[in-house]
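Repro case for the chain-ordering regression, as requested:
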Amino acid sequence: MSTKTVPISNTPLDERSRQFRRTIVKAIKAGNRGHVGSSFSLVEILRVLYDDVLKFDSANPRWPLRDRCILSKGHGCLALYAVLADKGFFPESELWKFCKPEGMLGGHPEYGKVPGVEASTGSLGHGLSIGVGMALNARIDKSSHRTFVVISDGESNEGSVWEAALCAAKHMLSNLVVLLDYNKQQSYGTTYEVLDLDPLADKWRAFGFAVQEVDGHSVAELRSALAATPFQADKPSIIICHTIKGKGISFVENNLNWHHKTKLSDEEMQSLMAELGA
Amino acid sequence: MRKTCLDMVYELAKTDNRVVFIGSDLGIGTLKEFKAEMPERFFMEGVSEANLIGMSAGLALEGKIVYANTIATFITRRCFEQVCLDLCLHNVNVRIIGNGGGLVYAPLGPTHLATEDIAILRALPNMTILAPADATEMRRMMPRTLDHHGPIYIRLGKGGDPVVTDPSQPFEIGKIFVMREGSDAVIVSTGITLKRALDAAESLHAQGIEAAVLHCPTVKPLDAAVIRRFAEVAPVIVAVEEHTIVGGLGSAVAEILAESDFASLKRFRRIGIPDVFPDQYGSQDTLLARYSITAERISSTVEQLSAK
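-- result from build under test --
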């Protein structure tokens, strides 16, 4: 058994980050379910991507020159939905129909149903290969748009992630950027207990990626790392984002009882919103 | 049949720049002209079927028509979830080409036999399953795969299979070809067992039994109307395939018959591989004979059912 412990981050969250988390909590309350911790660790990654990096037109989600962004850890979809709604891909009111029969937003993102979603994900280990195909296509078509794939640490248990990594490196896909949400918690326990990935950066280097590590809740660090991509002209890039599962709420952080939650009580709601500065 | 199939991918690629080929770790020299002339659309990606299917989906989501090829069992069993989610759920234009459908790789044992490929893929929404009978049919079929919407599984025979289809008959995805008329019995077949079905019908004719032969190069979607039309008049129906009797063409025909509310009694049998892992080596033909997937068995089955 590993004796390694999950580090604590004290990175403060600004109002925009807290606002996204409040939106996620409200959607979980409305849908009576949702992956709380997995969404919260992702918020800054997606926020910086959509605020500062990706080229897109939310009025024309299929704009050919847009950058492609795949949330391969599909269970973190609430963070993506909150950001996509903020950017105008669909009305915010859709969030309050999360997982409902009349809603278009389900517990995992679906291509063809949700504007802005490039691939249906949920089963782990699929998104990176799809992203490799998209990045190769951009090269074939001599298009300058880029492909971003957000994966998780638990997802990296899947062999297919590493098959895709070999392939991306072989093709020197510098137009592909992977962001790994390394919150070091999976469903049963820590990644150290369940299936240790360390030394993670060394593994990706060995697989042919150019690697940077950042505090995944620091908007400044994420901006700076993403602005520097591709890190090398002949390699795909990966940013290992050190994050905290449940980041932003003291009693949720690193608490596996909050990996997935159904039926938030009114008291829990109040506590969550209070911590998020509502 | 395999060579014809890959030659056709090359021909299609020359005239349509949406066509991309992805192999796993195929034999040296595979499609070397394709690689030399269109290197940006030729990929050989190693023994990594999950990634191969996922990247095919990514390319297809961007508008490419991807022909992905490896041994049938590896491109169906090994990466089944990728086929289901990346290809079928997204309903993308990827054509997975399976070398050695059925018992082709008999000497290599059960790890290399694709004996339930049709059954597992038949259960996936949006999937089309094609199993031509010979190389000439393959040549007529491949151009029709270009603009078909959604994923396709192409099941390849061994090669050198006798030519039994009609070269003048245009191929159409979803169509059953009536190879022989007859109202005493109906023999339904797919892929290379068509030759056996035709031989059985000929010997039955000599005994005064007129058996229709329906060739189903498209197993999914299966043209239920044609099967019903022939089964309506014939009291005996036999389905034959180089595939387990669980879930393949025979099962598909059984489903159609069972739900057809025929006015008269029908007698039906499936001929195929029983629910076992083949336990001998030898050749495709010796294993087909071991499991009685033969013209003799087809004709004797029809005779016995006709006599009841």
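Ordering looks correct now. The beta strands of chain A are 33-34, 68-71, 147-152, 176-182, 210-215, 237-242, 261-262.
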